[in-house]
Write a structure and sequence with these properties.
By secondary structure, the protein is α+β, with helices and mostly antiparallel strands. It contains twelve helices and 25 strands. Helix 3 runs antiparallel to helix 5 and helix 3 runs antiparallel to helix 11.
Amino acid sequence: MSELFKPGDLVGLEPSGQTCRIEEFLGGGGQGEVYSARYGERAWALKWYYPQSATQGQRKALEKLIDIKIKSYNFPSPEFLWPEFMASRLGFPGYGYLMPLRERRFHGIVDILNQQVDPSFRSLVNAGIKLADSFLLLHSKGLCYCDISFGNVFFDPETGDIMICDNDNVGVDGENNSGVLGTPRFMAPEVVTGKSKPNIQTDLYSLAVLLFYMFFLHHPLEGRFEADIQCMDLAAMQKLYGKDAKFIFDPDDESNRPVPGLHDNALTFWPLYPQFLRDIFIRAFTSGIKDAKDGRVRESEWRAALSKLRDLIYYCPQCGAENFVHEGPNPLDTVPESVCWGCGCELTVPFRLCVGRQTVVLNQDTKIFTHHVDPRKRNDFSTPVAELAQHPVRPDVWGLKNLSTAKWTTLGPNGKQLEVPPGRSVSIAYNTRIHFGTSEGVIV
């Protein structure tokens, strides 16, 4: 691949007339090439379009996206590497744009499948929550992404932080004229069959596919049907991902089940997750295939389900593997012992804090947030209001430490009532009730 620019080349920015300096070639794709560039005190990324991609329509779309950024400084969010400046060079064909540079700690989600990174379940869940939240923000403004896939989403395997790139394809819902239909295997069935162009509803389907890949390391439609295909040509792909799309774990139709020896990731990971998460994926790829308008899982539903999943993680005392509590309909019910998927040893679920319909496993690293104790402030994970703390003299005794500014009232299993001011702890004991001010929880 021939590089359009060399280190040290200057590229003009519109409309200021200032310049950025090319530092390094980062890579190229079907539309153009990407470089790291220096502008002001920051490192940026410059995407430059090949002549065939540098259309007038694409330029107008970019100018609209940059105008959105100018008029709403905090939109969409830091997770989007949003176009911020148009770029051009006198006597040089085409144009480009400047966007924030992706940090090196971020990896492509496809690296999970290639075993180049091995994130924890907690990091994956964090990434899923942030993806759902980010696309909810985008869609709430009437914009659709058009191409949610492996190539456009990056994450930090240590923290679950995400970055969303290639935002030059973002368009107004129902007005997408970029010509981008999406990435094969991620496109909604109605896009595959040519019945629809990308829109917010097709984004929801693509998001579900991406999440399924993240948690099950497999595609939701690739089972027996895929194994029987002799040649994966265009007609076969249209059938498998379009007109005959069938979820591999459809509870009412087992015809496309994963094949042992070929689809072992799906068979291994599917039973590891609690039923409520499996149910939401079932809906995404049954009702979500049949009814594009009303059957798709919304971003807020993914966010709620994944927040719940994160609260149910606990660790095997033998091998340290993360497992999930498989609770019943009533969170206060006793959870039966299970077996660690990592080493096979029997597990006993730790104490749990139940607040309303929410359950939080009390691991040594657990933090309780406003989200858990104040029903008026859902999805607020900004500041912890409590954390697990070890007794200063008796290391085998743990308590829930009050990190909030409010005083708690507790009722112990012996019927004794105590006050827990900020900075103090209440011992972890079965059937202890804690009044947080806006809600009451019980330790089970």
